[in-house]
Specification:
It is a single chain. Helices cover 35% and strands 15% of the residues. The strands form two sheets. A six-stranded mixed beta sheet has the order 4-3-5-8-7-6. Strands 1-2 form a two-stranded antiparallel ribbon. The protein is elongated, with a radius of gyration of 49 Å. The protein is built from twelve helices and eight strands. By secondary structure, the protein is of the alpha/beta class.
Amino acid sequence: MANNNKKNPKKPSSAGKPKDTASNKPKAAATAPQEPDDSRIVPTTVKTVAGQIVETETKAPPKEEDDFREDNLEMSQLSFRKRWAIRKKRIKKEMEGMARMQKVEYLLSYFKWPLIFIVGGLLLLILMIIGIKNSSKTVILAISTINVPDKTIVTEEIFNDYKNYKSSDGRITSEVGTIKLDTEVHFSLETYEQQYSNDSNDYSLTQFPVLCSTDFFDVVITDRDGLDFCSASNLILDPETVISPTTVLALREHQANAKDNIGTSYFYAYDITDTEFAKSLGYEDKVYMAFPGSGDTNKYNAERFLCYLFGLELPPQEN
C-alpha cells in the first residue's frame, strides 16, 4: 500500500525568486520616433530668476543666401560680387512666369532709385557743361530797359533779328556771343523819394547803380523819366566818349539832351523812338538809348547795336 505519508513535491515558491520586471515595462512603440535633425535644432537662451523662467530668447538659424534682404546687416557685409549674385538669383526667381512687359515694369521698379540717381547725375552734368559753356561765351550786348511798361514783352525774342545781324566787320551776332537782358529797373525823379521810403533795398536803388559804375551794361533803353533820373544821378556817360566821331556825326539829328545833377542840359542819349526795335518794346512815348559802360568792350557793343538800329556801317575799331 502506497505510503500516504509521502509528501507531494512542493511547487517552487516565488517569494525568493527575483521579480520579472520585464512584464511591467511599457510596450515598445511599433515605430520608434525619429531622431531630431541636428541641422534644424534652434538653440535658445533662457533667463531665470529664482528658478523661474522670465525670458526666453530664440536664436535664429543661420540664413541661407536667399534669406538675405537689401537692408540686412549680413547683406551689407558681403562683397559686391556676392551681393549682386544674390540679387540676380532673387530677381530671376521672382520674374519666373512674367510676360515681357511685366519683367520690364518689375526691373524698373526694382532699380528705381539707382536709375533716378544716374539720370539725375547725368542731367546735373549736362547743366554744368552748358553753364560753363555759356559763362565762357562772349557777351555781345548787355542791355537794361528802364521803366518798360510790360516787362513780359521784353524777352530775348525781340533780339532775334539782331542775332542774325552781320556788321560791316563781317561778324554775325549769334556767332559772336550772347545777350544779357535786364527789365527790373524803375526810375523817376518825381517818385524817387517815395520809392526809397517804401524799400531802400530796391534793386533799382542799390544794385543797378553799382552795375552801371562797374561797366556791366553796354546800353540802357528808357523813357523820358528814366533818362532824366540817370543823367541827374550820373549813371550814364556823354555819348561822344563812347561812340566814334563818324557815328556821332551820322546820328546828330537823333541826339537828345538831359540835365545833369546841377541842372545843366547836355547831350546824354539818342532818340530811337522811330526804330522798329523801340516800337516792339511797348513804350507809349519817346524812347532813348544811353550808355553807362566806358570799357572798350562796352564801346564796341554799344556802337554795334546803335549802327544796327539805324542801318549804319560799323566803323573799324581803333587799335
